[in-house]
Design goal:
Blueprint: H1 2-34, E1 46-50, E2 65-69, E3 79-84, E4 87-97, E5 100-104, E6 120-128, H2 132-138, H3 141-174, H4 180-186, H5 194-208, H6 217-228, H7 231-244
Antiparallel strand pairs: 1-2, 2-6, 3-4, 3-6, 4-5
Length: 245
Amino acid sequence: MKGLKKFLKVFVDILTTLVFLILLVIIFVRVKTLFSDEEYFEVFGYSIFSVATGSMEPVIKQNDVILVKKQDKYKTDDIITFKSDNAYVTHRIINIIGDSIVTKGDANNAKDVAITQNDIVGKVVKIYSNLGVWQKVFTTPKIIIMIFITLILFDFAFSYKGIRNKQNAKLVDKIEGVSLKQVNETAEEQKLTDLEIVELYKKTDAVKNGEEVKFDKKEKDFLNYTIRLDLSELQKQIDNKMNGE
């Protein structure tokens, strides 16, 4: 169980780092797009688009994500992404006549209006099936921020438990060898019932075994009271009581 919790802690840490990096990339993309003339993000000649229609089925389906790379030249049968009437279209080149490039969607009956190379964003070099929904999720800052905050809270919860376990271990180490039952019998304050002492023994044993334990306020007060005691004086009280009996 302890190993599983440690694994989950490491997993959450890695996931938090990845989400944070994604958030940084999104911010970078938004800023770069904002201060550039392009309506899409491009790095090293590569761009990513989400396919909104089924005009290229069955090769490219709706909600697929495509990786597009800018080329110096394009040829017949290349699948390209280009700008047409303020929209970005991904279709196949079926004919090239001089500077005029004719395209058509595989699932369409009609050809597109001819374009030039200046209208082309790039050639489709990779298709990622059904990633359109996930692209929207991981490119929406609000969603990423919510995921990031949730992971931070998980990480804090794990860290808090770890800190509490260490504090409990130190607390239990300080009372090692001390009879809590005898302390309770001689105590004039912070007194516990017999059942509470039994429960406290169980919890201290659990702490020694590396288990997660939560001491309530009364138990903590009793343990702190035990630590504050002059143990030599306590032993004298115990010896005197035993001799008296």
